[in-house]
Specification:
The protein has 292 residues and is α/β, with parallel strands linked by helices. It is globular, with a radius of gyration of 19 Å. Helix content is 42%, strand content 18%. It has a domain of 174 residues: Rossmann fold (3-Layer(aba) Sandwich). The relative contact order is 0.15.
Length: 292
């Protein structure tokens, strides 16, 4: 039995589909089962509630061998530690008494970064806490997700402007969620691995946001220009969308660390496990979302 958390989220839903297609027995944990498509609901065991609730996660882990773990990272929580570490604590306290042997979690690049990195720092604390329970654990340490740019779809469609608090000459890696889900699915269906390890997921290329805007221009068939904004402007936008002061600070620390080179500290020997280029993703997902 494989337990999938956040099964209606963008990554969780992709992982769920893949493991079901692979023939696995699956249990999902979510607050509202009605959010699952009917055809999916008929194929899975459902536990309703928050996976931060000790009673809920205890029920979910009964008879399970593997877990896909992803906290929602709720921006209204007081801090990144609350959103990742404290959210995951009941799970970690339940694991040793369960039959779970393998966990695959979504995390972030940045292990070893010497400065505060907000959400990244808390994600790595979460990874360490899960790893200390004794299960075999793989933390999928993601670079920035391409899908985050979908949040700017309306502004790009209406104004032709991509805004980020990043200098125009800074190259950053980006990875597509479909590639992240593919790696998670392979690990969940083939549990012949042991120990605790980070798996860095970089995507196949590093790009500046100027280059990203140029690719958007070519794919959308309309001009998109990049505009650097102050970090404070980005943080104001997070706060306007309901982010707590602690999460606003955490987002700022994370993006500052990325701008300063955090994602470039470690390079994987190969990027073949995350092959989707930004252009491919833009054609497949961004253009339909922005242009309809």
């Amino acid at each position: 039995m494989i337990v999938i958390t956040t099964p209606t989220g963008d990554i969780g839903a992709r992982v769920l589909k893949l493991v079901l297609d692979g023939g696995a027995d699956v249990r999902v944990v979510l607050r509202d089962a009605s959010k699952l498509p009917e055809d999916v609901r008929q194929k899975v065991d459902v536990v309703e509630g928050s996976h931060a609730d000790p009673a809920v996660i205890g029920k979910a882990l009964e008879g399970a061998k593997s877990v896909f773990w992803l906290p929602p990272g709720t921006p209204t929580l007081p801090s990144p530690d609350a959103a990742y570490v404290e959210f995951s604590r009941p799970f970690c306290e339940t694991l040793p008494g369960s039959g779970v042997t393998h966990v695959v979690g979504i995390s972030a690049l940045g292990r070893g970064w010497p400065k505060p990195a907000g959400l990244v720092t808390s994600s790595i604390k979460m990874d360490d806490m899960i790893g200390e329970t004794g299960v075999a654990y793989r933390a999928l340490a993601c670079s920035s997700l391409m899908e985050n740019l979908l949040r700017q779809g309306p502004n790009i469609r209406e104004n032709g402007v991509l805004v980020e608090p990043t200098p125009p000459d800074v190259k950053l890696p980006h990875v597509a969620k479909t590639d992240v889900a593919d790696v998670a699915e392979r690990l969940l269906l083939n549990t012949d691995w042991t120990g605790v390890e980070d798996i860095p997921l970089y995507g196949p290329e590093d790009l500046t946001f100027v280059e990203i805007a140029e690719i958007m221009t070519e794919v959308l068939g309309r001009e998109v220009r990049f505009q650097e904004v102050p970090m404070s402007a980005f943080q104001d936008r997070v706060k306007a969308n309901g982010g707590s002061d602690g999460m606003v600070q955490g987002y700022g620390e994370m993006l500052t660390a990325k701008n300063e080179g955090m994602d470039a500290m470690i390079r994987p020997a190969s990027r073949h496990d995350t092959p989707t280029t930004f252009r491919e993703w833009c054609e497949r997902e961004f253009r339909p979302a922005v242009m309809g």
